[in-house]
Amino acid sequence: MGPRRSHGGWLWMFMFQLGAADCTHHCLSSSSDTQPFIPLTQTPTWQVESDGGCLKPLYNFAKLFIEAVQPNPFPEDIFTALKTEQLDIPQLVRYEAGYLVCMLLAGLYLLLMPVAGGVLAWRHFHSKKVEVSDTQSSTLSSLYHQDIGVAACLVLVTILLLTGVILAFTVNSRVSENMHLGLYHVETSARIMEDSLTSIPQKIEVIMEQFSIPKAEISKEIDDADDIIGATIISFFNTDVDKALTDLSASIKDAIGTIENLQLYQTTRTDLQANHTILQNGIQGLQSRVESLGKCPTCDFPDPSNLTTVANYYLIPSVDDKLNDMPPASSLAGLVEQGNLTFCAIPQKCSEQVAPTIAALMSELNETQEELLNTSHRFPSLESLTEAVSDCKTTVRRFAEPVDYYDFVRWAVSLTLCMVMLVIVVLMVAALSLGLPVLFYPTIYSTYPDARLEHTAIGLFRAAVVVTFMFSWLFILLVCVMLFFGGNAHTLGCQSWTNGQIFGFLDQQNYLFSSLNNTSQSFNTSQSLNTSQSPNIKETHQIQPSTSAIYHGCKRGQSLFQSMHMEQLFDLEDFLNASKYLDGFNETAQNLSVSLDGLKLLPDNGRQALLSFKQCGIDSINYDELLLLLSTPVVKTDLGVFADELDKKAELPANAGIKEDLKKEAETTRHLSTIVKQQQTNAAKMSQSVSALKIISTVYKANIDKTLESLTQTEVALYNQVPYIVGNVSHCTMEKGAQSLLRYLDWVRHAILYKVLDCRWLAVSLDNVYTAVCLNVIDPLNAFWLCLGWCCAFLVPGVIFSIYTARRLKPEPTFISKDTFILPEKKTENMKCHTEKAASNNYMTLEEIHESCMVSEYIKSK
């Protein structure tokens, strides 16, 4: 029995290890499942494109000029003084020194242009006589080449003015087009930043709510643990319990069959012995009576000496002692069903025992959820930054309409002045178109008398000069205003953003990230009151994130958590450390146990009944002798045949006197034959019972031993293996729960860093603001004043060359004396001189004609 039990134990261990491997494989295979966490929508962003195009060289030239005018760095101290209302005026003047120089130059321009215009106008209306020296007359022949140079310069200046006007129209229109769109982009970018920052705590709350998914999975695993334990036990031990109960059923069947056969044996024995007495007495009486009737000398009777019993049923032993030792049948009935019910009740017993532990695990799960939620509330707040962005958006929205209106006014004024500038250029172009041919080819307009074309060209030149002098102060004033505002906007905003100087100023604005440090301080205070709480906020000094690091980090794809160095305030790794959440689970799960003490597949009364049956001693009966006795004939002579012979003898005439006696004895013999048959039937019945008892007696003890051993081994295996099964199921359950929690925490880490705190929208929005404001509005605005200033600058040489050309187009003067000449009052003589000279040489220049005429007049005067 020892080796057999040992083999059974190894079998159970093998089955347990096999079950553990299956459970572990199930745990590992389930870990690859993807949990359906809600997808977090990211802020949609798009890139605003710059519309500089072919105008970028012009924009860059304007930037170079502004950088030369204002080379100072970003004035952080001036802005700080503006906030504190303690502005240092000399410092501001030093910062704007370049623009002051430009304003002085503009003032000189405003002063000199009217003065020059007045001088020219006075000379035009008061200078009727002009003295001409001998030197001037001697150099008249060289004026032709000078006119060519002046004309070329005037043409070049006109082309440059026309180019400047066209560019001014273009960039002015572009500023107006981009202003409204730029305000929209700025407001949109501010709204995107505000919405994104506002959504951070909302998204974190959504992430914490997603804990319901692993919680549901873990809860299901915990709730199913008792069922899994019970089902595992049933699955592992079902075969052995069925086998043990089958053996028990066989032993019970032997016991009940023994009881039934013993009872039948005893009843049949009583009948056999009772009938044996009756039969024996009847045969003896019949034998004596037949012998007395056979004394007749003439009678021929059968020999009655053979009428004797053979089987002595008094030799059948009694089995009352065996029946008394047998257990009652009621104690054996239902043992198999009771054992089966006991085994099937194990899951219910497991559920009852693990219910407190499961409740404790569910409580731990709820505490984990609460701890995660409470810790998430301590996440560094960006409320101050959100408020700053919201204020910016409100400011943009509040000033969008006024800015749009003032830009319309600026556009209208600029358009008007550009139209005036265009009129000046058109006048100059028209004057050049009419005057240059007359200046170089006097005969080209020979069909037009009285120098009409010359006077028209002179009038156009004079009109251009007059309009220039009238509106030049407006031009330079607009240039100065546009330069001051556009230049400062570029330097303070765009250039400081490009070179990163503005980030240093923003870093000094403590209010931007004040909520970060406030969150840390408030948690440190609460933490000092409750030291048992796991710290997720690091007790550190206040931090001031670098706005430059934030911007460039977001542009590189980093999250706000990294670029703002939130790890100095919030320990994300500790927050997402699964071990601190699983420690409570594991400690509680260690209390998960099931005890099957008192579980008995065979109750004590059933076991005692089987032992009583084993000790009943049915194997001590001599079944062979009994069977031999029962197989012995009841009588030697067939009583039926003997009765027939008596009937035959009664019919003989010789026995007529004893006929009735013979008839009577024949009936008696038949009655005894009936008893013999009954004895034979009972003997056969008893023979069957004895045979059954004989068979049972050979196996019943072995069956009982096998049954008891099988039940004992099964119960012992249940006692020994159930703790391992419970531990394995508990480990598997916790492993699945840990995998669910780890998947959730990994998703939380990824979602927080790359979804919630993904700040690519911040870099894109700031770039869009820079593009919409600087590249699409300020750059064209600076290009506009540059083009207008360009025109103002070239108006000066344009006026000079126009005046010179207009003077060279005047009709020829008449000499009065050697040193002076008077403009002719009658054009006929002058025209005559022209005609005569033209008739003699069609290729003479205007200077030659003019020189010859002056010489002839001089001679005549002499």
From TrEMBL:
<protein>
    <recommendedName>
        <fullName>Prominin-1-A-like</fullName>
    </recommendedName>
</protein>
<dbReference type="GO" id="GO:0005929">
    <property type="term" value="C:cilium"/>
</dbReference>
<dbReference type="Pfam" id="PF05478">
    <property type="entry name" value="Prominin"/>
</dbReference>
<feature type="transmembrane region" description="Helical">
    <location>
        <begin position="460"/>
        <end position="485"/>
    </location>
</feature>
<dbReference type="GO" id="GO:0016324">
    <property type="term" value="C:apical plasma membrane"/>
</dbReference>
<feature type="transmembrane region" description="Helical">
    <location>
        <begin position="148"/>
        <end position="171"/>
    </location>
</feature>
<comment type="similarity">
    <text>Belongs to the prominin family.</text>
</comment>
<feature type="transmembrane region" description="Helical">
    <location>
        <begin position="783"/>
        <end position="804"/>
    </location>
</feature>
<dbReference type="GO" id="GO:0009986">
    <property type="term" value="C:cell surface"/>
</dbReference>
<feature type="signal peptide">
    <location>
        <begin position="1"/>
        <end position="21"/>
    </location>
</feature>
<feature type="transmembrane region" description="Helical">
    <location>
        <begin position="97"/>
        <end position="122"/>
    </location>
</feature>
<dbReference type="GO" id="GO:0031528">
    <property type="term" value="C:microvillus membrane"/>
</dbReference>
<feature type="transmembrane region" description="Helical">
    <location>
        <begin position="411"/>
        <end position="440"/>
    </location>
</feature>
<dbReference type="GO" id="GO:0015485">
    <property type="term" value="F:cholesterol binding"/>
</dbReference>
<keyword id="KW-0472">Membrane</keyword>
<dbReference type="InterPro" id="IPR008795">
    <property type="entry name" value="Prominin"/>
</dbReference>
<keyword id="KW-0732">Signal</keyword>
<keyword id="KW-0325">Glycoprotein</keyword>
<dbReference type="GO" id="GO:0071914">
    <property type="term" value="C:prominosome"/>
</dbReference>
<keyword id="KW-0812">Transmembrane</keyword>
<keyword id="KW-1133">Transmembrane helix</keyword>
